[in-house]
Each structure stands twice: as structure tokens, then as C-alpha cells.
Amino acid sequence: MSENRKEIRQELLTGERALFHGKDLNIYDSTFADGESPLKESSNIYLENCLFQWKYPLWYSRNIQLKDCTLFEMARAGIWYTEHISLDNVLVEAPKNFRRTKDIILKDVSFPNASETLWHCQGVEMDHVSARGDYFAMNSSDMKISGFELVGNYSFDGAKNVEISHARMLSKDAFWNSENVTVRDSFISGEYLGWNAKNLTLENCTIESLQGMCYIDNLVMRNCKLLNTTLAFEYSTVDAQISNRIDSVMNPSGGVIRADSIKELILERDRVDVTKTKIICEG
Length: 283
Fold this sequence. Notes:
Elements: E1 6-9, E2 12-13, E3 23-28, E4 31-32, E5 43-48, E6 51-52, E7 58-59, E8 62-67, E9 70-71, E10 79-80, E11 83-92, E12 102-111, E13 122-132, E14 141-151, E15 160-165, E16 168-170, E17 179-184, E18 187-189, E19 198-203, E20 206-210, E21 217-230, E22 237-242, E23 245-250, E24 254-259, E25 261-266, E26 277-281
Parallel strand pairs: 1-3, 2-4, 3-5, 4-6, 5-8, 6-9, 7-10, 8-11, 9-11, 11-12, 12-13, 13-14, 14-15, 14-16, 15-17, 16-18, 17-19, 18-20, 19-21, 20-21, 21-22, 22-24, 23-25, 24-26
């Protein structure tokens, strides 16, 4: 940290815009209590073991670091329109956090109330993040995610250029309308997975889904398992290698499907050109 930075220690900060336009600050063991927008338009701020208890703490801010901090439920809509921010070992209880924010690093962060979190954000790195809530990461782009746990529906709707590894997601309607998403070494359970996506790649994944992977332009699956997955691949172009049985496949638009076996294969000639799909059952 720069020698010119001012230190604030063990302060109780109240009132609207308590540190408005704050710059070059190291803040330790302090509480931002009642009062909106305490660090609005701040820059070059380091916060350690601080508590945020009220709304809109970090809007239009730049170069922010939070370590061992807590954002309480009322710190809702807390981080919007901000650039270059990192959170390390932070509990974010507040919903609707991170909106139109760029260059985000999240490490060991928990979002127990992640409703409408990470919307329209760009340049996001996540390492060991857990989240519970619907509509996570809508319309965000350029994301690299590892060690991720999510319980919440409609995640990553409209997301672009996303890489996810070692994740466990319980999420209905995940990856709808997404583009250029790759998921590796992960488990996903949720109905209607990936509808209307473009360039969705799943590698070494286990999937459980009703009517999953439908209406997709260029679905690639490598060494994946499908558990209790029915009516898969409808109107999708597919290059799939499934290492176990598929319970049912319905009306793929084209490509190749390899599986140990397929319990039910539905091909309706009045709906798709059945000659465009090659089915290989290796078992």
C-alpha cells in the first residue's frame, strides 16, 4: 500500500455518503451503519474486516479491495457501476449485488441471498464461490469460474464467453440464450438446460435434466453422463459423446449422438430431417 494512504481504524461511520469521494484509504475494523452510499465515487480503497449494514455502499467506484468483510442484508444493490474490485473471504448476504461492474475478482465468497446478482457484468474471475438465488449472472460476459456451487434457477441467462470448472449447480433453465459457454468437470441438475444457447460445450460433466439441451445451435458434449435425462436434444445440432444410457432423445436437428444405449428414441419425420442425425449406440 502507498505510504500516502490515510488509515481509518475501528470507526462507526453513519449518515448518507459518509466517505463520499474517498480516495487512497486503508480502512480496518470499521462499520458502515445507517446511511446510504457511504463510499460512492471512491477510488483506491482497501477494506479489511469491515461491516456494511446499509444500502448502496460502492457505486461508481474504482480500484477497491475487500478482505474478510461482511455485507449485511440491507447492503442491497451494493456494488453497481464499479470497476476493478476484488473480494477475498467475504460474506455477501445482500441481494442484487454487482450490476454493470467490470473487472471483478471473487475468492472464497459466499452469496446466501444471490437473487439478481452479477447482472450485466464484464471480466469476472470466481474461485470457490457459493451462491443461492435466482437469476445469477444474467447477461454477464468474459467469466472464468472454478470451484462454484449454485442453488438457484435461471442462471447465466444471456451470458457470453464463460468458462466453468469443478462446479455443482442445481439450476432450472441454466444457460438460456447464452453464447460460447464451456463447462468442465461439473454436475448440473435442472430442467430445460441450455435452451436457445449457441456454442455450449460440456466436458466430463454429469447432467440431470428434463428436456435438457434443446434448441441449441452447436452443442458439444465430451465424456458426459446423463442421469434421469429425458426428451433431450430437441431441435439441437449435436456432437455428443455420452458414456452411459440416455433415457430418451427427441427430434435432434442434426449431428452425431454416441451413447452406451438409448432407452427411447423419438424421431418425427414431419418435424426434423432424420437423415441429418447419426445415432451410434456402442453398448
